[in-house]
């Protein structure tokens, strides 16, 4: 039996408190995130340079970025954007493939019921460590470790010298170093390595959580039926992990599109980001941060294009990896509802 | 019987041997990966104690004797101390990070509580919106963000670095999930009401203490994310005054300076920038890894 107080409380509407509690979030979100997003669109329709920012130019910035023009300056904008996009894709693919392979293998090994890996907890903690270190510090650290100066090489080149891969001229004592910083593919390789190094522990833990959520009896059934580890992996683990995998893929892809700190700092020439590493995020940053001649319009248009790519990629990944089982159930429910309706009609229904 | 024993005994032995072999292989792979994870940082700390000339000519895995000399170079030499001052960096980073962490966690819990406890018309709409915007990357809105901040004159201040922390969609998402799972039963809220406790007081004195585990985990993540943030401060603090710079900005200044040439000093500067994180990790690594697993994918 409800007491008087309880009845009184039931009759009061608390809806206004709900709004009150989420109000700070909503206000701050609209000022600092939603309006800036709208403003990015607005800026993208305006001109470049300190005066141009007031002038409405319609889709000119998009045209310049996507199709270029015969004018040299605009052609540069166009070419630079596509080389930045290509760099972003190369760097992302080059880090995602080794990362997912490594994390998947480790996650499967750590969760297998019949094997017990000693020190699993410690390994997890060590492998996650690189992820919490400041990316800016890591970029500068690897810049030191991979130093390529002939008279004062970094640790990596010295190690390779010990392994007789890098030779040292006996007379001048100069090393024939591998160009880990200025070389096109060498520097990309280092950035891919850093990204993999930073993120595989994180991905591994996510995948492990996903695997542990799978019903254990399926693994037991596969084991009883004599499935090999590889068969179990392909036919049980991967299909059951679809939602975890799609989450990993989407977050990694969006993270990859934003890649900034490491490519921005990993170069030798103090004030010039290497062209082989310039990602879209760096491209945008350089345009609106130009001290002499800020090009807000191009930066805005490139951001909008990046936003659209992000949304499209997110939708594709969600669609490709959607839960087929759930869809089947939903279809079946729909079908049975339809049939029930038909039956009702047949018998007159009501 | 003896025949059967022979056959099954052998296959069982084979099976056990196979498992053992696999366990050892995986163990060795894990050791190698752990070495790869730790080696760069180990070399970083070792080289911070070595002489610049020695660093350039040889590798060492034992500390050298030049730590004091490197400290002197880093703090006394004008070429170095005008580019990188770890104390100013700590002060600024800590200031921003402390506010960001408190704001993120407090307001996210509050938003999650509002969504969890109250039924109101726009509840589902608000929750869906928060989920949808979780994925919008900062880099996409940055051009508009900076243009807007320039217009209202907030560049070169800490406001645009601290205030946005109030709206952290990801943390709200995790907090809501945690409250739904086992956090706050609605009956407790009702009991508090019967006892005459105001709504806001219920939140402060009942909900917050009940959520302390999730709050602790999310605080650690918020702390690390804010401490490591290089993109936003670098973008907002346009005139990059030395006194305003955060630690990652100082690191970037080392890279951009052509006078910062002493290898020992560079390694020492980098070490000082990551030591706070290593300390935080040493204390909270279990909670961090556990929190990651918990916050993983909710199905």
- Largest interface, Cβ cutoff 8 Å: A-B, 112 and 99 residues
Mean pLDDT of chain A: 85
Number of DSSP-assigned strands of chain B: 0
**What gap, in angstroms, lies between the N and C termini of chain A?**
39 Å
Number of domains of chain B: 2
H/E topology pattern of chain B:
HHHHHHHHHHHHHHH
Short description:
By secondary structure, chain A is mainly α. Chain A has helices at 4-11, 15-44, 49-52, 60-67, 72-111, 120-132, 135-145, 155-162, 184-213, 216-224, 229-240, 242-257, 261-265, 280-288, 296-320, 324-346.
Chart the SSEs and their pairings.
The complex is a heterodimer of chains A (350) and B (299).
Chain A (H helix, E strand, L loop, with lengths): L3 H8 L3 H30 L4 H4 L7 H8 L4 H40 L8 H13 L2 H11 L9 H8 L21 H30 L2 H9 L4 H12 L1 H16 L3 H5 L14 H9 L7 H25 L3 H23 L4
Helix pairs in contact in A: 2-15, 4-5, 4-15, 5-9, 5-12, 6-9, 9-12, 12-15, 14-15
Chain B lengths: L1 H46 L4 H6 L9 H10 L1 H4 L4 H32 L5 H11 L4 H14 L7 H4 L6 H15 L2 H9 L4 H12 L1 H17 L2 H6 L10 H10 L6 H33 L4
Helix pairs in contact in B: 1-15, 3-15, 5-9, 5-12, 5-14, 6-9, 12-15, 14-15
């Amino acid at each position: 039996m409800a007491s008087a107080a309880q009845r009184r409380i039931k009759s009061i509407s608390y809806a206004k408190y709900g709004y009150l509690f989420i109000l700070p979030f909503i206000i701050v979100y609209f000022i600092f995130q939603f309006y800036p997003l709208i403003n990015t669109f607005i800026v993208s329709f305006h001109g470049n340079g300190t005066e141009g920012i007031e002038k409405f130019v319609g889709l000119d910035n998009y045209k310049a970025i996507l199709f270029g023009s015969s004018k040299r300056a605009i052609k540069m904008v166009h070419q630079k954007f596509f080389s930045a996009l290509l760099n972003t894709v190369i760097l992302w693919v080059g880090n995602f493939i080794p990362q997912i392979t490594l994390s998947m293998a480790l996650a499967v090994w750590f969760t297998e019921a019949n094997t017990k890996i000693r020190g699993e907890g410690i390994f997890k903690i060590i492998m996650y460590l690189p992820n919490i270190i400041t990316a800016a510090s890591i970029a500068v650290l690897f810049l030191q470790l991979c130093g390529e100066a002939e008279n004062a090489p970094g640790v990596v080149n010295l190690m390779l010298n010990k392994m007789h891969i890098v030779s040292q001229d006996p007379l001048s004592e100069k090393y024939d170093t591998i160009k880990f910083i200025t070389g096109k593919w060498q520097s990309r390789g280092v950035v891919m390595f850093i990204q993999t190094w930073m993120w595989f522990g994180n991905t591994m833990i996510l995948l492990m959580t996903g695997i542990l959520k799978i019903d254990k009896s399926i693994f037991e059934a596969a084991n009883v039926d004599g499935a090999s580890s590889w068969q179990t992996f392909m036919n049980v683990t991967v299909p059951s992990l679809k939602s975890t995998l799609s989450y990993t893929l989407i977050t990694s892809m969006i993270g990859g599109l934003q890649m900034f700190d490491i490519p921005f700092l990993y170069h030798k020439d103090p004030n010039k980001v290497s062209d082989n590493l310039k990602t879209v995020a760096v491209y945008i940053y350089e345009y609106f941060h130009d001290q002499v001649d800020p090009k807000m319009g191009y930066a805005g248009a490139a951001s909008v294009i990046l936003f659209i790519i992000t949304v499209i990629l997110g939708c594709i990944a969600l669609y490709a990896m959607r839960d087929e089982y759930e869809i089947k159930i939903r279809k079946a429910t729909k079908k049975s509802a339809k049939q029930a309706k038909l039956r009702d009609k047949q018998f007159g229904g009501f | 019987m003896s025949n059967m024993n022979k056959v099954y005994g052998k296959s069982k032995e084979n099976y056990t041997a196979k498992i053992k072999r696999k366990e050892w292989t995986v163990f060795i792979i894990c050791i190698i990966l752990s070495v790869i994870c730790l080696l760069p940082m180990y070399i970083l700390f070792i080289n911070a104690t070595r002489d610049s000339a020695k660093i350039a000519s040889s590798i060492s895995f034992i500390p050298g004797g030049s730590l004091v000399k490197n400290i002197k170079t880093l703090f006394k030499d004008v070429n170095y101390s005008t580019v990188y001052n770890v104390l100013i960096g700590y002060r600024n980073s800590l200031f921003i990070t402390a506010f960001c962490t408190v704001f993120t966690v407090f307001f996210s819990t509050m938003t999650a509580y509002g969504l969890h406890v109250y039924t109101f018309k726009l509840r589902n709409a608000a929750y869906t919106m928060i989920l949808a915007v979780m994925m919008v990357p900062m880099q996409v809105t940055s051009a508009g963000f900076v243009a807007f901040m320039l217009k209202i004159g907030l560049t070169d201040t800490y406001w645009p670095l601290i205030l946005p922390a109030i709206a952290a969609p990801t943390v709200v998402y995790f907090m809501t999930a945690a409250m739904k799972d086992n956090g706050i039963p609605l009956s407790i809220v009702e009991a508090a009401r019967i006892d005459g406790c105001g709504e806001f007081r219920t939140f402060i004195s009942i909900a917050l203490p009940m959520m302390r585990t999730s709050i602790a985990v999310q605080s650690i993540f918020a702390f690390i994310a804010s401490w490591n943030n290089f993109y936003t401060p670098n973008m907002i603090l346009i005139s990059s005054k030395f006194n305003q710079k955060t630690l990652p900005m100082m690191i970037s200044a080392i890279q951009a300076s052509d006078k910062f040439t002493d290898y020992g000093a560079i390694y020492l500067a980098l070490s000082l920038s990551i030591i706070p994180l290593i300390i935080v990790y040493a204390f909270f690594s279990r909670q961090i890894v556990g929190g990651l697993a918990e916050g993983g994918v909710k199905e």
